[in-house]
Structures are given as C-alpha cells and as structure tokens.
Amino acid sequence: MADLYTFTLTDGSGLQWTDSDRTIRVGDRVFLANGALIERTGIKLTRGIETRTLSVTLTPTADVTVAGRALAPFVVRGGFDGADVLLERAFLTLAGDLVGTVVRFRGRVGPIDDATADEIPLTVVSRTHVLDTAMPADLYQRGCLNTLFDHACGLNRADFAVDGVVMGTPTDRAFGTDLAAGAGYFTLGRILIGGVLRSIRTHEAGGHLTLSLPLPAVPSAGTPFIAWPGCDGQQATCENKFNNNRGSGRNRFRGQPYIPVVETAV
C-alpha cells in the first residue's frame, strides 16, 4: 500500500507525490516518489457529520522545487495557502502493479505558521468545515461584503493589471515608480515584484508606493512589477472607480451604506 497526495494550488497548478519508494501511475496521473518526504497522522472514521483535520508534514529535499523555487520559501510566501489536498490509498501487488485506489481524505490547507527549512507542517481541514460557518453568511455593514476581483465582485483582475518599474532610491518597503495613475489609485491594492506578492499600503502622488510588509530584498531601480488597484469597499468607489454598480447595470455592490451612524444618547 502507498499514500497518494494531490495538491491543487489556488492558481490551478498541481503537485502529485507519493510516500512510496517508487513512482506510481494511476491512469494518466503520475505520483512522483522523488518529491518532498511526507508523513501524516492517522484518519479517524466516525458515523455522522463532523469537521475532521489531517496533519501532514512535508520534509523538503534539495531537488524539490515548486514554480522554480525551493519548497520551504514557496510555502512561507503563501504558495500552499488554501490549496486543495486529496489523499488516496493505493493498493499494489507484490510485484508493484496497481490494483486500485481509495479516497481517504479531502480538504483545504489551513494557516501555516510553523514552517521551517527542514519541516513544513500542514493542517488540512475537511470540506465539512463550511458547515461551521455562522448563519446568515451576510452581515449588515456599510462597506461592501465582496473582495475585489472575487466571483461576487465580478471584475476581471487581468483587466486592471498595470505594468510599472521601480524608480529612485528604493527600500525594501517603499519606492518610487513610473505609475501614472492619480494618488490613491493603488492604495490597498496588490503588487507582484520579483516573484513576490505584497499588499500596497499607500499610493502617493508621483507614483510612490509603500508596502504593508517588506520585500525579501531591496529592489533595484528599473525592476519591473505588476500592480493592481485597491478598493476600500465604499459605494462611491464601486461606482466611480470601478464602474461596477448601478451606473454599469451590474449592481455588484453588497454593502448597506445608508445604515444610520452610531449615536450616543445622554
């Protein structure tokens, strides 16, 4: 017997590894034996519906890379966040021929807090965890419930991507750019620079950006990047900045901006 792991990342790419000492082929799927070393806890089967978790520990090896990066840095930078994990048990003959497979567990990777260069612990939560969501799902609030570019927002992220380059004397957290948009357009947005994704804290006049978290290294002047605008969740932003509400006919705004403000009675 051998465990087969399929990791489907949020960008749609996938990894297929096995804890066996040999590569296993299941139909057109190939589970590599030379991936990360994998250990897991046992699986408890119970009657009824409950939220289950599976603890998986990845031990990187020198030749394991994901998207051209070593496994540990890729995970620490969020590469496995929200990934779908499918665990199957493969049954083999003594000669190593495949008899069949059985699905043992499926879920999503939760927060990863204790990853090191030598050991990456993953907590995989079963899909029944959505049943723990408080009802109703929507809360009454002045700001929009959507996240910019999610399925409910409906905007296409690629349509708002803007190419730029670093200018001036940059630091690991702030630098000038050649972005021509007015001040504030990219505030609360995102930037992909040097293969690293960061949130933009402020966008000032002249294209100066300040990031929420520092970059792993100081970029040099001329470094290219891709930036996306941000949204503060207000109705005026949805209508005027993104043309995504009543004026466009899409009516995507999901806030309640006319809720009375909190007042104090004496």
Description:
The strands form four sheets. Strands 2-1-9-10-11-6-5 form a seven-stranded antiparallel beta sheet, with no helix packed on it. A six-stranded antiparallel β-barrel has the order 12-13-16-15-14-17. Strands 3-4 form a two-stranded antiparallel ribbon. It is 5% helix and 35% strand. It has 266 residues and is mainly beta. It folds into two domains: 2-132; 157-248, Thrombin, subunit H (Beta Barrel), CATH 2.40.10. The longest helix has 7 residues, at 235-241.
Q: What is the gist of this entry?
A:
The chain has helices at 71-76, 235-241, and strands at 2-8, 14-18, 24-26, 29-31, 37-40, 53-59, 65-66, 69-70, 84-92, 98-109, 120-126, 162-167, 174-177, 190-193, 196-204, 208-211, 224-228. It is mostly beta strands and 266 residues long.
**Tally of extended strands?**
17
**How many domains, in number, for the residues?**
2
Report the portion of residues in β strands: 25-35%
Largest sheet, if any? 7 strands, antiparallel
Helix content: under 10%
Rough outline:
globular
Keywords:
Thrombin, subunit H, mainly beta, 2 domains, seven-stranded antiparallel beta sheet, about 270 residues
